[in-house]
Amino acid sequence: MKKEDCIFCKIANGEIPAKTLYEDDSFRVILDLGPATKGHALILPKNHADDLFGLDDDTAAKTMILAKKMAGTLKEKLGCAGINLVQNNGEIAGQTVMHFHLHLIPRYEDDGQKIQWVPGKPSQDELEKIQQQIIE
Ligand code: AMP
Ligand code: ZN
């Protein structure tokens, strides 16, 4: 299902042009307009889901299989040294377009990008409390 006024629904379904790298019945893979690096791509399901929380299991599974395939293509064709998969959910997590998408970011020596966080230093007790909170 498409959502009215969703730009990625329109792109995924071919109503707004984009630089397409791959398309099938369920997905379109496009070049990001504001790339972190050369070849930065986005996997867009054609059916609308706001984010990971709203994604159906079948699309979730197929997204990762497609990511694997596209990562291989990007590595082969662009000769990148590595690839980051990034997937933001919610404004607080940096999501700016509210249609689920998975970033494929090719990485090159000295590409000047940093996709990282500051590691915390929790005690074993703290880790255990969090573990219990999640699994209980
Ligand atoms: P996020 O911050 O995870 O929601 O990522 C949204 C991404 O979509 C950003 O990297 C934007 O550069 C990209 N983007 C936004 N509009 C377009 C568009 N029309 N075509 C291609 N990429 C886009
Ligand atoms: Zn949408």
> What is the arithmetic mean of pLDDT?
97
Low-confidence stretches: none
Strand content: 15-25%
Strands, total number: 5
| Structural class by sheet pairing and helices | alpha+beta
Largest sheet: 5 strands, antiparallel
Q: Please compute the radius of gyration using only Cα atoms.
A: 17 Å
- What is the N-to-C succession of helices and strands? HEEEHEEH
- Spatial order of the strands forming the largest sheet: 1-2-3-5-4
Give the helix tally. 3
Shape: globular
Bound molecules: adenosine monophosphate, zinc ion
Structural commentary:
The chain is of the alpha+beta class. It has three helices and five strands, in the order H-E-E-E-H-E-E-H. It has helices at residues 7-12, 57-78, 124-135; strands at 20-23, 27-31, 41-45, 82-86, 102-107. Strands 1-2-3-5-4 form a five-stranded antiparallel sheet. The longest helix is centred in the middle third of the chain and has 22 residues, at 57-78. The termini are far apart. The relative contact order is 0.17. The mean pLDDT is 97. The protein binds adenosine monophosphate and zinc ion. Zinc ion is lined by residues 3, 6, 8-9, 48, 99.
